[in-house]
Amino acid sequence: MDWINIALFELGGKPVLLVDLVSSLLGLTTVFLAGRNSKYNFWVGYLYTAALFFLFWSRNLYANLLLQPVSLAINVFGHWRWTHPKEEERSSEDANRLKVSMLSWPQRGFTVAAILVVALLWGWVMKTFFPANPAPYLDCCVTVLILTAQLLSALKKWDCWLAWLIVNVTQIILHVSVGNVFMPIVCGLYLANGLWSLYSWMKLYKKNG
Fold first, then answer.
1. C-alpha 114, offset from chain centre
2. 62: which residues sit within 8 A by CB, 6+ positions away?
3. Which residues, other chains included, contact 119 with Cβ-Cβ below 8 Å and sequence gap of 6+?
4. SS3 72
5. Chain-centre distance of CA 26, in angstroms?
6. Farthest-apart Cα atoms in the chain, separation
């Protein structure tokens, strides 16, 4: 799979590979469509998961590679939920579409606590068995937060965009700290889309889906 590592151009003195560009474009398209309440975000999401699989495989990032089946399962679940709502979950504009809803404050508290507990436990495992990771707890916290944001998006919860915003800001800081140039730009686009989606999904919520 040498074609995956083809360098297309340099940015900030570092090469941007074909797999980097393809996965970034697919990821941006997925969240753009999700923010516009389009069910087609899931079809692009399947391609995005495949692209990430090749990306992590080419870089021997097997821990991240093993998470892709989980992401795929969440994507399939979300695709089903968005297109097969229960009677009380149907959008007022389209009975075949799941309406936007929100977590209650107790649910938000439970979600935050669960993220911290799982991240701490997972971080301890990574630190113990994979000591080469320079920031296991932060890495695991971001990963758990990403999976949580994906699950909340699959359930069409407005709160998913709050999680995505935290992920985007954290990733921008991480990439800038290690001298990356391309990925902070991509994460900045994710951040802009997240802010707009936060606003547009609130409008959908107020219209009862």
1. 18
2. 56
3. 137, 140, 141, 143, 144, 145
4. helix
5. 12
6. 55
Cα separation, 32 vs 38, whole angstroms: 9
Residues of the chain with pLDDT under 50: none
- Give the per-residue pLDDT at 5: 67
DSSP 99: P
DSSP per residue, 101-141: B---HHHHHHHHHHHHHHHHHHHHHHHHH-TT-S-HHHHHH
Tell me the C-alpha distance between 127 and 167, whole Å. 21
pLDDT at 141: 87
DSSP state of 98: B
What confidence score (pLDDT) does residue 54 get?
Answer: 83
Residues 6+ apart with CB under 8 A from 8: 15, 16, 17, 18, 21
HSE value, Cβ hemisphere, 13 Å, CA-based, for 6: 7
- Euclidean distance between CA atoms 164 and 166, whole angstroms: 5
Q: Residue 11's beta-bridge partner residues?
A: 14
Q: What is the CA radius of gyration of the chain?
A: 18
Chain position carrying tokens 């990733």: 171
Q: Which element (helix H / strand E) includes 56?
A: helix 41-58
